[in-house]
Design a protein that fits this description.
48% of the residues lie in helices and 19% in strands. The protein has 168 residues and is α/β, with parallel strands linked by helices. α3 crosses α4 and α5 crosses α6.
Length: 168
């Protein structure tokens, strides 16, 4: 996992499908849209930028394409408690350039996912920094989110699976 960035993906499926790729700290990496965009294309594009950790939607009822993306990539799904309104999407994406409403929706979907997990991601970094284990951050974040276990359990799991380095 070293060298590969964890990613947050937002998908807006439809006749014109759009997707947004964010870094684990919420920075926009890419926003694209196209008519008849296939799931495999989104998966490939995501993997060219890193490893999908979370995939989000702006709809309370998770679209099939988002569920299929999660299944194909092993990413956790972030689904809001309610459909995100256009007003909220406009506020969330203000100052970030998008070419069309589909891209804005995909970006909002990714930002919803980021906001949902941001407190946990920051807590992982804070705890690991305090313990002098910041180098485990990426693995711990992935383990905590995907396996839905505590930070402490994730650290223990990861440390037990690390190969021992011989002093000779």
């Amino acid at each position: 996992m070293t060298g590969c960035k964890q990613l947050i993906i937002g998908i807006d499926p439809g006749t014109t499908t759009a997707y947004a790729i964010l870094s684990i700290d919420g920075r926009v990496i890419s926003v694209k849209s196209s008519k008849q965009l296939k799931l495999d294309t989104i998966v490939r594009e995501a993997h060219q930028n890193g490893i999908p950790l979370i995939v989000g939607t702006d709809r309370r009822k998770c679209p099939g394409m988002v569920s299929k993306f999660a299944a194909k990539t092993g990413a956790a799904k972030a689904v809001p408690d309610y459909d995100i309104s256009e007003t909220e999407k406009n506020l969330m994406t203000k100052g970030i350039e998008t070419e069309n409403a589909h891209q804005k929706d995909a970006l909002a979907s990714a930002l919803v996912a980021y906001k949902r997990y941001e407190p946990l991601l920051k807590r992982v970094d804070k705890i690991l920094a305090k313990e002098g284990k910041s180098d485990l951050s990426e693995k711990v974040k992935r383990t905590v989110i995907i396996k839905k276990i505590s930070i402490k359990k994730a650290v223990n799991m990861i440390e037990k699976s690390l190969p021992l380095v011989s002093p000779y």
